[in-house]
Design goal:
- Helix 2 runs antiparallel to helix 3 (120-134).
- The chain is of the alpha+beta class and 136 residues long.
- The relative contact order is 0.25.
- The chain has one domain: Nucleoside Triphosphate Pyrophosphohydrolase.
- It is 26% helix and 39% strand.
Length: 136
């Protein structure tokens, strides 16, 4: 975990939902399966910024729901990151997008997504989100 001198950098991301499917992308650096995410841009809300990341990183256009579904953390040499995750209702999957040559994109079932996501906190957020949708 963070020591007293480590700065926490805030980001936002989306869990893209296309009907009963989830859209995952690969990380540019590790190739692991993740969700679209990035820094919250100046003048944008976390949800708006996350929607922009979905468009740039995954070619997704849609409607971001206003309430986040959790926060996960990860660290890199540049610091500790905290990512607020918002559900995004996918309206369009573009055939071509800004980062298509750097990332893979895959439409999978929620159970496939849980097998593909290696980050424990992110996997927990995804699992809890889908479990809450099944509850009466």
């Amino acid at each position: 975990m963070a020591n007293g001198s480590e700065k926490i950098l805030f980001q936002s991301g989306v869990l893209p939902i296309a009907g009963e499917m989830v859209v995952l992308i690969t990380s540019r650096s590790s190739g692991r399966w993740i969700i679209p995410k990035g820094y919250v841009e100046k003048g944008m809300t976390p949800a708006e910024s996350a929607a922009k990341e979905a468009w740039e990183e995954a070619g997704i256009r849609g409607r971001v729901l206003p309430d986040d579904i959790g926060i996960y953390r990860y660290s890199r040499p540049s610091g500790l990151f905290a990512v607020r995750v918002f559900p995004l209702v996918v309206e369009t999957l573009l055939d071509e997008w800004q980062e298509m040559h750097f990332r893979q994109r895959r439409l999978v079932t929620p159970s496939e997504a849980l097998e593909m996501i290696s980050h424990v906190e992110l996997r927990t957020i995804v699992a809890e989100y889908f479990a809450s949708r099944l509850d009466p």
